[in-house]
Automatic annotation (TrEMBL):
<dbReference type="GO" id="GO:0046677">
    <property type="term" value="P:response to antibiotic"/>
</dbReference>
<feature type="region of interest" description="Disordered">
    <location>
        <begin position="1"/>
        <end position="25"/>
    </location>
</feature>
<feature type="DNA-binding region" description="H-T-H motif">
    <location>
        <begin position="48"/>
        <end position="67"/>
    </location>
</feature>
<dbReference type="Pfam" id="PF02909">
    <property type="entry name" value="TetR_C_1"/>
</dbReference>
<dbReference type="InterPro" id="IPR009057">
    <property type="entry name" value="Homeodomain-like_sf"/>
</dbReference>
<dbReference type="InterPro" id="IPR050109">
    <property type="entry name" value="HTH-type_TetR-like_transc_reg"/>
</dbReference>
<dbReference type="GO" id="GO:0003700">
    <property type="term" value="F:DNA-binding transcription factor activity"/>
</dbReference>
<protein>
    <submittedName>
        <fullName>TetR family transcriptional regulator</fullName>
    </submittedName>
</protein>
<feature type="domain" description="HTH tetR-type">
    <location>
        <begin position="25"/>
        <end position="85"/>
    </location>
</feature>
<dbReference type="InterPro" id="IPR036271">
    <property type="entry name" value="Tet_transcr_reg_TetR-rel_C_sf"/>
</dbReference>
<dbReference type="GO" id="GO:0045892">
    <property type="term" value="P:negative regulation of DNA-templated transcription"/>
</dbReference>
<dbReference type="InterPro" id="IPR001647">
    <property type="entry name" value="HTH_TetR"/>
</dbReference>
<dbReference type="Pfam" id="PF00440">
    <property type="entry name" value="TetR_N"/>
</dbReference>
<keyword id="KW-0804">Transcription</keyword>
<keyword id="KW-0678">Repressor</keyword>
<dbReference type="InterPro" id="IPR004111">
    <property type="entry name" value="Repressor_TetR_C"/>
</dbReference>
<dbReference type="InterPro" id="IPR003012">
    <property type="entry name" value="Tet_transcr_reg_TetR"/>
</dbReference>
Length: 245
C-alpha cells in the first residue's frame, strides 16, 4: 500500500519540495572567503559581521566562535588578499628592478579588491602573508647593499605609499559607480571641472597654476603611481651598493 501510494504522481498543482541546500560548515576560512566575496561585490563599507553571517545563512553570533570581531575579520581578509602576491628570490644584481616589480604587483593585487588597502593604513599588517612579503622585501634590499635600518624604513614608507594610492583609486571608483557614468566619462568630467575652475583663477595671484593647468591634471592614476614609485626607488638607490647608484 505504501509503495503504491508513493508511485502515484503528484497533482499538477502541487510541486515536490526541494531538499534544502547543505549548509557550508562554518570555519574561519569559510568566513574569510565569504567576507572577501562581499567586499569585492559590494565594497568595504558594506562589509560587516552581520552581512557575512547573512551570506552564510547563519546568525552573527555564530561567527564569533571563529573570528573575534570585525577588526580581526579585516586583518584576516587583508592577509588573504596578500596571499595572491608572489615574491621573488633576492637577486643582488637586479634588486631595484625586483623592488619595482614587487611594488607594482602588490599595487595590482590590492587594486583588484575594492578598498581593502584601507586596512593597511589603520594598523601594521602582521599576518603570515604580510610577514612573508616583508621578509622578501628586506632580503631584496639588503642583498643590494641597502643598510638594514634604511631597508626597514623603506618598507614602511613604500607600503604606506601603495596603500594610500590604492585607497584613493578605490574612492574614485566608488564615486564613478555612484555617478552612473562609465570610467572614461567620469574621469573626463571630474578633472575637466577642476581644469575649468583653475583657468578662472586670477593670474596675478596664481601665475604658475593658470599657466600649467594641463600639466597639473595630466596623467592617470597608474602613471602617477609609477612616477612616485620611481622617485622612492631612486632615492633608495643612494643607500645601495656603489655600482647600483
Amino acid at each position: 500500500m505504501g509503495e503504491q501510494a508513493q508511485a502515484v504522481p503528484l497533482p499538477p498543482w502541487r510541486t515536490p519540495r526541494k531538499a534544502p541546500a547543505a549548509r557550508q560548515p562554518l570555519s574561519q576560512d569559510a568566513i574569510v572567503e565569504t567576507g572577501l566575496r562581499v567586499l569585492d561585490a559590494e565594497g568595504f563599507d558594506a562589509l560587516s559581521m552581520r552581512r557575512v553571517a547573512q551570506e552564510l545563512g547563519t546568525g552573527p553570533a555564530s561567527l564569533y566562535a571563529h573570528v573575534a570581531n570585525k577588526d580581526e575579520l579585516l586583518d584576516l581578509l587583508y592577509d588573504r588578499v596578500l596571499a595572491e602576491v608572489e615574491t621573488p628570490r633576492a637577486d643582488p644584481g637586479r634588486w631595484r628592478e625586483q623592488m619595482r616589480d614587487l611594488a607594482l604587483h602588490i599595487y595590482e593585487v590590492l587594486s583588484a579588491h575594492a578598498d581593502i588597502a584601507r586596512v593597511a593604513m589603520a594598523d601594521i599588517p602582521s599576518g603570515p602573508n604580510a610577514l612573508r612579503i616583508t621578509e622578501a622585501e628586506l632580503a631584496i634590499m639588503i642583498s643590494g647593499g641597502v643598510p638594514p635600518r634604511i631597508a626597514s624604513w623603506m618598507i614602511d614608507r613604500l607600503n604606506l605609499y601603495i596603500a594610500a594610492d590604492v585607497h584613493e583609486g578605490a574612492m574614485y571608483a566608488a564615486r564613478q559607480r555612484a555617478s552612473g557614468k562609465d570610467a572614461g566619462e567620469f574621469i573626463s568630467d571630474f578633472f575637466g571641472r577642476f581644469g575649468d575652475y583653475y583657468r578662472t583663477l586670477p593670474e596675478d595671484r596664481f601665475p604658475m597654476m593658470t599657466a600649467h593647468v594641463d600639466d597639473l591634471l595630466e596623467g592617470g592614476g597608474r602613471v602617477r603611481f609609477e612616477f612616485g614609485l620611481d622617485l622612492l626607488l631612486g632615492g633608495l638607490a643612494r643607500y645601495g651598493a656603489p655600482g647600483d647608484r
